[in-house]
Amino acid sequence: MFSEKLGPTSTNLDPSVKKRLLLAWSQLGSQLMDLPTSSDGFDFLTYDVNHLSLSPTELRAKDELHQMKEELKNTEELVGKKFEQMEESLAKLALENKELRAEHEKLSLSNANKFAELKEYQNKQQKAIDDLTEKLKRANNIRGMDHKQKNYQEGLQRNRDKSLKSGRAMVGAKLVKQKQSNANKFEEIEQKNDKLEKSQKEEQLNIVHPQKTVTTMREIGQTPQQNRWDFAACHVNLALSEPDRLIVQHNDDKWEWSSVRAERPLLPENPYFEVEVLEKTWTIRSWSAFWRGESERRLPAFPRNLCFGTKPEFGVGDVVGCGINFKNHRHDIIYTKNGKRLDTWGLVADSASDLFPCVSLRLRGTKIKVNFGPNFKYNIADVI
């Protein structure tokens, strides 16, 4: 590279020096042949082989070449730095992209777990809905069955009442003469009943032991055992034993409900009676407990919780008892079997007045015997 001031010219140089300068200039010329010959309208380099001096144009070209090389160097350095920055940015972006992918996979897994949990929850909810729907269907079926059972019971009750009325009409003519012959006897019994009721009221106020009541009844010439089945209130399908009328038997071939009630109602001093099965099987559904005298209707028969479900049955030799608790205002209905009280909680009578013992039989050959007291298999003193 030459300085801007060359000093001596070719005219005053030594030949050997001049030769070396020409050789160097030739080499420089070869290098400059690869560059454009002009730049922005001016000659890049001109030289004279016979003169070793540089023209102003050559000096400018030299400077521009130097500047271009510097700019190229700076550009290369800048491009290198930019490239390094881009590589760093790309590496950073790749790392961020990797992190984002990992986070995306994590979120995808979390969403998958949440979706599975949601699906499981939906399945549980659907199962709960299905269970509730099934329970509702069963409840509706039960209500429908209860409604049918109620209609059946009402129809059965109407048929029973119709049968009783029909039976009373058929035997009415035969009973007229017997009623007339027994009128005086009934009047005497009514007088004794009046005395007995008066004694009962006094005994209720004094709250004395039931044995004293029996003694009082005996003093007036009557015992609890004197109550018996009423021939006038007995279905034609039933036969009563004479003269005590404590045994009743079903003799008709038809499976028809047939009832009979006692002559006198239950009273506070004698609120209980028992029935012993003598022949055949006597199911719980085969009897009613009480007959409302003034309204001529039955009270509910054996307790519903004993009529359905376990369905206990009575066989020959079993003793079933029934009574009313006159001591409380609810008038609880009492049922016993073979001297043991049955669970009849909630079974009550709307009123304890004018309640007559009553049984209903259905099967031919069924035979029972009633005990109106005072000696029972169940200790009624525990209640009254």
From TrEMBL:
Residues 311-374 form the SPRY domain. The keyword Coiled coil applies. Signal peptide: none annotated. Residues 58-142, 179-206 form a coiled coil. Keywords: Coiled coil. It comes from the Eukaryota. The keyword Protein biosynthesis does not apply. InterPro entries: B30.2/SPRY_sf (IPR043136), ConA-like_dom_sf (IPR013320), Gid1/RanBPM/SPLA_SPRY (IPR044736), SPRY_dom (IPR003877). This is SPRY domain-containing protein. It comes from Globodera pallida (Potato cyst nematode worm).
